[in-house]
Design a protein that fits this description.
The complex is a heterodimer of chains A (433) and B (573).
Chain A: H1 6-22, H2 49-73, H3 76-93, H4 100-112, H5 120-136, H6 139-144, H7 146-154, H8 163-185, H9 191-194, H10 199-203, H11 208-221, H12 227-231, H13 234-244, E1 272-273, H14 281-311, H15 313-317, H16 321-333, H17 342-350, H18 354-389, E2 400-401, H19 417-432
Helix pairs in contact in A: 1-11, 2-3, 2-5, 3-7, 4-5, 4-8, 5-13, 7-11, 8-13, 8-18, 14-18, 16-18
Chain B: H1 6-54, H2 61-109, H3 122-154, H4 173-177, E1 191-192, E2 209-214, E3 224-226, E4 229-235, E5 240-246, E6 252-257, H5 262-267, E7 283-284, E8 288-292, E9 297-302, E10 307-312, E11 327-329, E12 332-337, E13 347-353, E14 359-365, E15 375-379, E16 382-388, E17 392-396, E18 403-408, E19 419-421, E20 424-429, E21 433-437, E22 443-444, E23 450-454, E24 465-466, E25 470-474, E26 479-484, E27 490-495, E28 505-507, E29 510-514, E30 519-524, E31 530-536, E32 546-548, E33 551-555, E34 559-564
Helix pairs in contact in B: 1-2
The chains are: A mainly alpha (433), B alpha+beta (573).
Transmembrane segments (chain A): 50-71, 78-104, 116-137, 171-192, 204-224, 291-310, 368-388
Organism (chain A): Anaerobaca lacustris
Keywords (chain A): 4Fe-4S, Electron transport, Iron, Iron-sulfur, Membrane, Metal-binding, Transmembrane, Transmembrane helix, Transport
Amino acid sequence: MVRPRPILVALAALLVVGVAALGLERFPPPEFETDYVRPTTTAPNPPQGVWEYVDAGVLAVTLVLATVLVLRTRNRKLIFTLMLFCLAYFGFFRDGCVCPIGAIQNVTLTAFDPGYAIPLAVLIFFALPLVFTLFFGRVFCGAVCPLGAIQDAVLIHPVRVPRWLESGLRLIAYLYLGAGVLFAAMGAMFIICRYDPFVGFFRLSGNWEILVFGGCLLLIGMFVGRPYCRFLCPYGVILRQLSRLSRWRVTITPTDCIQCRLCEDACPFGAIRKPTEPWPDKEYKVARRRLAFLLVLLPVLIGAGGWGGYELRQWLALVHPEVRLAQRIYLEENALVEGTTDASDAFRALGRSSDELYAAATQLRDRFGLGGTLLGAFVGCVIGGKLLTLSVKRRRADYEPDPASCLACGRCYAYCPKEHERLKRGREGLIRH
Amino acid sequence: MNEPSVAYRTVRTTAKVAGTFTVLFLVLLVGNLIGTTVIGPLREDRLAAMKVALRGGDPTDEQLAEIRQLDLQIRRNRVWRLDFAHKTGHALLASVVVLLVAGRLMRVLNRRPPQPQNALDVGAEQLREARVSRWAVTAGLVVLGGGAAMLVMVGAPLAFVAAEETGPAYASREDKRLQWHRFRGPDGAGVSIFTNIPTEWDGATGKGILWKAAVPLPGNNSPIIWNDRVFLSGATEQKQEVYCYDADLGRLLWTGDVPISPAAAQARIDPMEDTGYAASTMATDGKRVYAIFVTGDIAAFDFNGRRLWYKSLGVPDNAYGYASSLETHQDRVIVQYDQGHGDEDVSRLYALDGASGRVVWEVKRDVPNSWTSPVVVEIEGRLQLLTLTDPWALANDPADGAEIWRADCLGGDVAPSAIYAGGLVLAIEPYSHMVAIKPTGQGDVTKTHIAWTMDEGGPDVCCPVSDGQYAYLLESHGLIMCCRLADGEKVYEHDLRDNFTASPSLAGGRLYFLGMDGVMTIAEAGPEYKELGKNELGEKCHASPAFVDGRIYIRGLENLYCIGGAVAGDRAD
């Protein structure tokens, strides 16, 4: 257990302020006439198409490599090396974009906005990790994802997060996924990209709030393994479910578990599950009653969530820039605020009528009613489902990684005596040949 | 204890050096940040001050050179700091990477073989873990649900969104005749169609008083009634509120908050004490209630207390404080917004959409501030919106605001509102005269449609009331004048020896005069004064009472009273 020490706290504070200090603001051009000719403002060119396909190719190759290293070679050092390469390439070299996590929103927007066509490379980035996870478990998380890699790289002194806390915090990721999908479907915002905590580090630039947020996550990540992956990542939510179905996945031991218990604390992400033991008889009776109650509660939670989401439609709608603009224009027109904003000035310059804007904003609000209902029902379903899964007895005879939580990092291999035996046999085989 | 290996010691030293550099770079970055955010703005303020000092003048070359030099210095400094931040950021990143690598290596070199603890009761531990996890998820559910409930209760400030309506969007004029939906009831005439209005009560003993309820904030506006709800407003310099009471029990059902607009807050309006901050009486269209305050802030609420919209009509320029009451027409709220001295083009007559607050139509009025209230009356099958101001009595079409007729007949500080009785519109110029206008003309009817003028004075505050045969005028010092409607001849006058700001009312053939001391004098309507009785409330009263089926609602300075008892259906027609 790590105790917070004053010096550690001081360092953390220094780090946060220091990171904020990177985000200096630019300043306006001179008001005086000079000889300098200002260039015409132009929109930046879109990234060259070829790089997108190179990225997709690198993603495919690295996923294949990761699969081989995780499931066949079972070599943590090589996995770590591949992870560092992916961090350097997808993170620092390619600026952390495109990434499968943000691609969720592109896919959603394509489904809801007929005027938006998703680039093929983005679709590949979204789909490939899902396909690999479906067959081989979360090899993408373990070795390819740059967001996971940057957290893995800073993990120095892992501490165990209690299961109950992990269960509670994981709800945030589901909520984040739901909100990300809703806002993308409504064309309101790509919230997952906007609040990507590490993209600022990859680009060595960004607004200070996000840099501080990312800095805090990295600081926490020195002691809590991959906090973003475990408690926030919306893509991880999808991968968790697919990983449960995977045909091949990480096993701690290459052969049979001898229940030596040496791997018990091997996983910094708390993904290793112990063999289960039979419950006392009276517990079965209680569990049956609890299960029946939770089964009844599930539709209630879905309904209540849907209703709550509908009632929150006006708050949710505020995320949409059109709705915020309508509100601002209304406040300005009725002298409820002073001054104007760049957005309201631009609106007036376009000559669009405020009635038209209000009508559009009202329509959006109504659409958020349906979206909010679905989001609320989803959250209710997740919570109800989580309570149900926590009330069902699992049967496990050996120490094994939880298929949903295992990030395929390969740390646990070295803890297994059977793995050492396998490696020894391999080395002897090499010598004989 | 074993001596650490050379490799471990080397890595440890590397970690220490990298850590030291990390701290150093962080300190430099923080120093740079302080320089940028604290010292930089000081120079920029100086530059801004120099620019302001020169604005509008004729700067010399030396002054311009000084400004340019300072501007250049600031920019150079900013560029330097930006560059420094970038370079130091890179160095920081490098030192952090070295620190992390060294830290990981230290951990690798210092790795201990795994040592499982003694096995606990795994089954019990797993049960406990599952149980605590369920509680954690439940706690998450509570936090989410609580947060959502709080947001729902607060309500998002989407003021422009139209309220969701079911059924007819507004009450008909026939419905309004059974209520007291605005200042002085239907048509603003102060006449109730009910004949079962109480005639006896006593505030000291509670006799005849159904209930009494405290009103949180002061206000001189009158209560309005719709079925089982009583509405009124109250305000101070800091707060504007709308109240809804249960008409049968006197329970305060809800309080609606109307924000004070930034312009009004900045203007620090200080109305005359007799006006106060909430002088205007509310109005309802049967679906929504509307309130306006001395600040010019107007708001709409549904009957459940949900604020539908609010807006500012601008801070009114009014000598004694804005006091015109609201009227409703269909699903619109009518606002007479007279202000200024008449030549600033600031006076308006508005019709606002009741659901959204948007302006449906507005009419510019070249008139000064006034204190009268608009009334919508039906004249020969056509609706007319009557307003009085200096110098005009005006009639507009409530559908689109188009002017129908106007008569030049008033002057000064006009406060008593118009009434329509016996086929005539009665308009009063305080202390001077009362004019009767035939409201059947078009355009300027000053010379053609004034039926008669009564020159023997007129009330300065109270509106007149009429039974169709006679008009009854009440001056603020207590003098009642009764005039024949046919020709304006004074029939009688009587001194009540009291002070009045509440306008007289008529119900069941009886006149009700509520004095400022809370004494209600009841007299028989007709060609001669015949007093029927006096009732004391025991509290000072400034507002006009409201009359509905079997009851009178009176606002005292601090309390709202309901006089009467069981509801009876004894109507005049």
